Amino acid sequence: ALAIEPFQLEDEYKELNATQWAWVIESLTKEQRLILWPHLDSSMLSSILSELHEDVRQQIVALLPKKDIEATVCAGTSVEALDILEVLPQKTASNIIKKLSSETQSEVEASLSYEEDEVGRYANKHVYTIADDALVSTVITAIKNSDTNLESNALFVVSSDLKFLGEVSLNDLLNAPKSSNVSAIVERSDMVLNDKESLIEASKAVQSTQKSLVPVIKENGQFVGVFSIHDALYIFQEFYEAQMAHMGKVNDEDLFSPVLTSTRRRAVWLGINLLTAFLASFVIGMFDKVLIEIVALAVLMPIVASMGGITGSQSLTLTIRGLATNQISQGNLSALHKKEFYVALLNSLCWATVVAVICYFWFENSVLAVIIAIAIIINMIVAAFSGVFIPVILEKMGVDPAIAGSVILTTVTDVVGFFVFLGGASIIFLW
Amino acid sequence: ALAIEPFQLEDEYKELNATQWAWVIESLTKEQRLILWPHLDSSMLSSILSELHEDVRQQIVALLPKKDIEATVCAGTSVEALDILEVLPQKTASNIIKKLSSETQSEVEASLSYEEDEVGRYANKHVYTIADDALVSTVITAIKNSDTNLESNALFVVSSDLKFLGEVSLNDLLNAPKSSNVSAIVERSDMVLNDKESLIEASKAVQSTQKSLVPVIKENGQFVGVFSIHDALYIFQEFYEAQMAHMGKVNDEDLFSPVLTSTRRRAVWLGINLLTAFLASFVIGMFDKVLIEIVALAVLMPIVASMGGITGSQSLTLTIRGLATNQISQGNLSALHKKEFYVALLNSLCWATVVAVICYFWFENSVLAVIIAIAIIINMIVAAFSGVFIPVILEKMGVDPAIAGSVILTTVTDVVGFFVFLGGASIIFLW
């Protein structure tokens, strides 16, 4: 399906919507993307660009003539314009903003007055509101005459000085006397979002309601726009994709990012890992005398480090999720530490025994078997504590535990594992 | 906030909705959960249970008297009932189903006729539909008189034999002549879901529309219920949480799962890892002669394995995401392999040089420096190929690459890393 011949596009691909087109484009190589682009329906270009992964959007925009970008941005909505402007150089972006229709321009400027992670920036400003002094009959007529469907069953009511007053449900609107004012039937919204709230918190809030649209208002009560459950879904998806990318030691990147870009981004993670690895090597190097005496130590030492690594990763994963959902606090931290300790204790006793038995039969050395068992137990317990402790500390320091947590944890489990195992062996076998 | 004194509940917690209560309960220990439970508003219990993490739901239900469970299930909606019945023993569940109101009972039974991951099971069957032969005026009156708000702007139209016919927007309904039939203004829905479709595919489909509710229909055209964007968000969240848990070598578990449950679940991952670790040890053991001669090899060997591990993890993470979004296919697989190869080649050349230089100065052995550089380059390139190859093969075999991928990959990078490095050293230093 991906080896698209551009001139066959018509039949198969005519029905795709912008989301589906973005999906297709993301799975193409750069060359294929460039062949395809001119054949797309020009009325969809701005929505497609807006739906694309940021890397791909940037790649395509960088290759388009300025005139085409301008035309695409001007043809789209303010939300789409914002996504495209984001990947443009500052100067080009300001030039294009000047050429937008005055309505879109003011919507875009309102968005740009917010920080990147504030919900005010992404609130849809292009939304149908009704005035509190309007007559019920006027509103019903307006709904009848509008050619687009309403996005929700509730209509947001705004005063003449743009203050948000609440919402009116269609049921109430239809039941109200035609000659009464909207203000007579307006109801307080169950939930409003503050415009400065962070995107992820706003998304959680929207998720906890059964509403599709939630109004976003300023501190002074002015109506900014609406944040939808579709927006929330998108934000969650971005959040999880980024967390998973970090867990896999990669930045969230396009499937077909340019080789040099990918190389550079991934090199950072590899470089940090190398530091960790050299630290572990340094610890091993401290015990070269015992390694020369007993080569079995070199054979077995990765087991100690790796069992600690997995245990730590398990506690870390649970803790990072708990921190992300705000379910870990000072109040339950010690209970969590205790639980993780007991889990690690039981598992370490179990697996240390297994390893000891295997080592005893493999190397016929009971002292070695005892040393590795003790080293595994210590390393797994330290790992479990670190798995809870490290992300909590990182979060307090304002560092994202999903990014830095596992690198630091691996350092701990490697260093402790090698140190305890080889150090213990040195004491027993060399003294 | 978590050290809740049960008798202070009234003031602070009165305004919490079911989602927020579930969130609070999940962050409590078992003992605290039991203290809190009797103080909750009994009309919310079924929604709270339904919102809870499956582990926690099971824990609480297991501790409640049968009568209380029955009362809670009967008081809730069919969707909530389903969530609670899921964590009950088969027999208890069937007994409770018999006591449900006939409407809820038939909704629950309709759901249970589907498999666990089919969208038909989770489609909301308790939805307001209109008959195609109803008069427009009748429908408008019904909307006016209904005391609950409509969930969406579109109304689903069903024929007398329960076939799904399409939808009617409120705008059209208000504009239509009062005496005409609904069938005159019904429009084909942009999207309908097949009831047998998998939950994750259904969720992706809903996400790609701007709709809040999508109708679910049987093969024969019969209307089953609706799947909402809120459901889709929940499914995505579960999907990502599970994937992240697997990446961290843990099953998706409750923060305060019982120690024995956690121990048992995590033991599986630790056991699999131990097999991997012993395989690596076995490879190291093959080269004990050269390890005795040159202790620096033991000091440096974790570096080779770990650089391969990170490279592989990077390719694996990208590939697993591409497979999850269906963006990797036969058509672009070789392009992806090629790109990952070049990225790994560049990075391996860069970091192998760094390691070689450090080793040269540390051990003053240029041959060793060359051997480790070559081993790192080979291992990183093999890792990048495996990172793409392994998940693709696993997916073809019907195994979830997010679960098995990284264990297999680590085995490959450890075995190849140790084999190439120690094997190369054996050839050079021992022959």
Describe, in plain words, how this protein is organized in 3D:
2 copies of one chain form a homodimer. Chain A is mainly alpha-helical and 431 residues long. Chain A folds into 3 domains: 6-113, MgtE N-terminal domain-like (MgtE N-terminal fold, Alpha Horseshoe), CATH 1.25.60; 129-247, CBS-domain (Roll), CATH 3.10.580; 259-430, Tetracycline Repressor, domain 2 (Orthogonal Bundle), CATH 1.10.357.20. Helix content of chain A is 66%, strand content 6%. Chain A contains 20 helices and 6 strands. In chain A, the strands form 2 sheets. Chain A has a 3-stranded mixed beta sheet with strand order 1-2-3. In chain A, strands 4-5-6 form a 3-stranded mixed beta sheet. In chain A, strand 5 and strand 6 form a beta hairpin. The longest helix of chain A has 34 residues, at 330-363. Chain A is elongated, with a radius of gyration of 30 Å. At the A-B interface, helix 2, helix 11, helix 12, helix 14 and helix 15 of A face helix 2, helix 11, helix 12, helix 14 and helix 15 of B.
